[in-house]
Amino acid sequence: MALRHRVGPARLSLAVFLSLAAPVSLVTLVASSCARPPEEGAHYPAAPAPGTGPAYGEAPPAAGISGREAASAWAKRYANARPLVQFSGVASYYSDKLAGRKTANGERYDPRALTAAHRSLPFGTIVRVIREDTRRAVYVRINDRGPYRKGRVIDLSRAAAEELAMIRSGLAKVRAEVVELGNGAKVRRRR
Fold it and tell me: What's the whole-model pTM score?
């Protein structure tokens, strides 16, 4: 006489979850290992900000647009923008060794572009980053994921770190304000 084991709902749901999660994890692992280092001497221009560019009737920026020119344009556009979300913490900045490598959204990291990494904000989100002690501010576009060290809230490109005068220290206490969500995302307000 054979013994039958009953599979309860908790075990069944765990089994279903594992059978679905394993292929997704495998695909993610394989896709993340496909990145190649940049070719010697390659130059990758910064991507345009969301809502700008030829599709919106504007000429594409010339290759090699400086961080200061982008900062000036975003400062004019978002000067009176009310923040959608605010958060505070420590900011760090990317190493120059990562220049040319792919970011999480597929762009190449350009230390001269005003970009940043955040753990959960949608790609293309524009964030006003204000250094707490000096009140210097810079606008950055989210194009990568991170930082993953406890207490850090945002990783900045070298150009953004220079605007905040944090190159020597490497870290700075900041307040970050989301002024425009990227990729059509909506803000969920708490009641």
Answer: 0.62
